[in-house]
Specification:
Helices cover 38% and strands 22% of the residues. It is of the alpha+beta class. The strands form five sheets. Strands 13, 14, 16, 17, 20 and 21 form a six-stranded antiparallel β-sheet that branches. A five-stranded mixed β-sheet has the order 1-4-6-10-9. Strands 5-12-11-7-8 form a five-stranded mixed β-sheet, with no helix packed on it. The longest helix has 32 residues. The radius of gyration is 44 Å and the shape is flat. It starts with a helix and ends with a helix.
């Protein structure tokens, strides 16, 4: 499909007189991007500045630059004038460039040639699409009866691409849109594969983008959105995910899909993009909001306002009212700062032709630093019940000594200016200055929001410190999602004395391991040779007795035939017996089975022939 249709696509300039619905999606820049950012647009624009070396290249550059609203290249018209021929592919490319840039295509017999391509009995959907769209782009007359021929052809081919081309071709035909063709859009959409929160067709980006463009222009002409909001959003997720791929063709069809999603007839996605990752702080009190379409183009003549912005405790950080700015770019400064996550309800007024979305709620995080207050650091000798060290840390980190009879008590509170707070991660770290070994203890807050570390070195020496003494630096570490960054406070330096302290074992994880020697079970002691010989004689004795009995009874072997089957059969029996003997003497089972397989087949065939000849001889008598 890619090879057949990869170079065929129509770009339409559509005047949107249809009342459009707007699906509002909240996209924070820190998460998955939902539209083209300014850097994305610059990267893609640079790809379509490359020199033109073919009509297809001229067509892609012209369409892409028109979608991105960039100045068009005059070299495209020159290339068309010098290279376009009276072929369907050339006329298809040239007609789009002519319509977008106003170029003149001086080729005689264009209309007759295109109508002859349409009239051909074997014309495919691809041929009908190119011919019809070329006639439309050149402003030539199109027969409205083509609807029936297109409907028959798309029914015969019944592929996603055939339906997409039928939608594009039908959109430029005069007259009403066939209802069954519009109804088929959602049916075809159900053929797409859903992976996670994205939908795409088996043909990939090109096939998906072409379907969205065809569905968009046909929905616009029919006056109804043919895809559900959920389908549109999933298709949009897939298209936007391709914006970082390389290659002109990939980027071209990414633009095609985004252009279709921005046209207004698929329930287009207009996005609220929050600057600063929706985070405000003392150094950045401004929240910036952009209302853009998937192409990253702001919605002109739009306004925005703050309806409310309150936290879980009822605090308000924004004053309700209009936001500054316009044309899709707005900002508002926080009237107050309070640490936490706030729900900001936004309202929008959009220009005529858009249905204004309901008030939308976005999450805004306010981050503020905290300070350590009311600190009390104590080292207490438990045996003598006396305080060795007592400090409020106002003069910085303290020094002290500790042994197995020492107890450490460290109390403190955390404040952010509005009062005492509790945070998610608060712990004290002990670091051995020599070995760099870290030991962590979690600080627990009580109902009055006071944090406490109560450590008895007698029980902690072996369990937490591994009986390793020496000098330890003590730090308080505080982390939380509402902090600008983690807070680290140097609290103390303690010389821990542990009896019979030992250095930690050397890390041997990267050294050679001792060689492993496997000891297999020794074979059992074999019996004496005399016993083995007697046992062998006893085993063979029945065979000797059998032969003696045969002789005594006068066994008759005169009827033994000397034919080839007789020799093969008896020889095979002897060979089978020899294989068993060989296996008993030491040959392994697999080798024995391999020999038996060949011998058994010969024995079976010879035995069957021998028994048949004996039966025939008896019957003749």
């Amino acid at each position: 499909i890619n090879a057949e249709y990869g170079e065929y696509f129509q770009h339409y300039y559509i005047t949107n007189n249809l009342r459009m619905r707007v699906l509002v999606t909240l996209c924070v820049l820190a998460s998955l991007a939902c539209s083209l950012s300014p850097s994305d647009r610059d990267k893609i624009s640079s790809v379509f500045n490359l020199p033109i070396d073919s009509l297809k290249s001229a067509y892609q550059v012209t369409v892409a630059r028109s979608i991105l609203q960039l100045p068009l290249l005059e070299s495209s018209c020159e290339f068309v004038a010098n290279n376009a021929q009276l072929t369907l592919a050339d006329l298809y490319f040239a007609s789009h460039i002519s319509k977008i840039q106003g170029c003149q295509v001086d080729i005689a017999g264009i209309e007759d040639y295109l109508n002859s391509e349409i009239a051909g009995e074997g014309a495919s959907m691809n041929t009908l699409f190119k011919a019809v769209t070329s006639l439309s782009n050149f402003g030539m007359t199109i027969d409205s009866s083509l609807n029936e021929k297109i409907a028959a052809k798309v029914k015969a081919e019944d592929t996603v691409m055939a339906h997409s081309l039928a939608y594009l071709a039908t959109a430029v035909l005069p007259g009403d849109v066939p209802k069954d063709l519009v109804d088929s859009i959602e049916d075809i959409a159900h053929r797409a594969d859903t992976i996670g929160n994205a939908m795409s067709f088996e043909g990939g980006l090109m096939e998906t983008s072409m379907f969205l463009k065809g569905a968009a222009v046909l929905s616009l002409k029919a006056g109804k959105a043919a895809l559900t909001d959920q389908m549109t959003q999933k298709f949009a997720n897939y298209i936007v995910s391709n914006k970082d791929k390389s290659g002109k063709s990939n980027l071209f069809y990414t633009l095609v899909g985004l252009d279709a999603l921005s046209s207004g007839s698929l329930v287009p996605t207009h996005l609220i993009v929050l600057d600063n990752s929706a985070v405000i702080s003392e150094s950045q009190r401004t929240l910036k909001v952009s209302l853009v379409n998937p192409l990253g183009v702001t919605v002109k003549d739009s306004t925005a306002k703050i309806v409310s912005a309150k936290g879980a405790g009822g605090q308000a950080i924004f004053t309700p009212g209009p936001m500054a700015g316009g044309d899709g770019m707005f900002e508002v400064s926080a009237s107050e700062l309070a640490r936490g996550v706030f729900s900001a309800e936004l309202g929008f007024e959009l220009p005529s032709g858009y249905l204004a979305p309901d008030n939308s709620v976005v999450k805004v995080k306010c981050v503020l630093p905290v300070e350590m207050k009311n600190a009390a650091f104590k080292l207490i000798d438990v045996d003598d019940n006396r305080i060795l060290t007592n400090s409020d840390l106002s003069g910085g980190a303290v020094e002290g000594k500790a042994d197995l009879s020492t107890r450490l008590i460290f109390d403190f509170t955390l404040t952010d200016g509005s009062g005492e707070v509790t945070l998610h991660q608060v712990f004290v770290r002990f670091t051995n200055t020599k070995t760099k070994q870290n030991v962590f203890f979690i600080a627990q807050a009580d109902l009055k929001k006071k944090y406490t570390i109560d450590l008895n070195f007698r029980s902690a020496a072996a369990k937490s410190f591994g009986s390793v003494g020496g000098e330890y630096s003590v730090d308080l570490i505080v982390g939380d999602a509402t902090l600008p960054q983690a807070m680290v406070v140097d609290v103390a330096t303690i010389n821990l004395e542990v009896p019979d302290s030992k250095e930690p074992a050397a890390d041997v994880s990267k050294q050679a391991k001792p060689e492993i020697t496997h000891l297999f079970k020794e074979p059992e002691k074999r019996p004496p040779q005399a016993i083995s010989t007697v046992f062998t004689i006893l085993v063979l004795l029945p065979a000797v007795i059998l032969l003696i009995v045969w002789v005594k009874l006068g066994a008759n072997v005169s009827n033994l035939q000397l034919s080839l089957p007789a020799i093969g059969f008896h020889g095979g029996l002897l060979a089978i017996i020899a294989s068993y003997v060989n296996f008993f003497l030491g040959v392994n089972m697999f080798t024995t089975v391999k020999y038996l397989a060949g011998v058994a087949i010969v024995t079976f065939l010879c035995g069957q022939r021998l028994l048949s000849s004996i039966a025939a001889a008896k019957k003749a008598k």
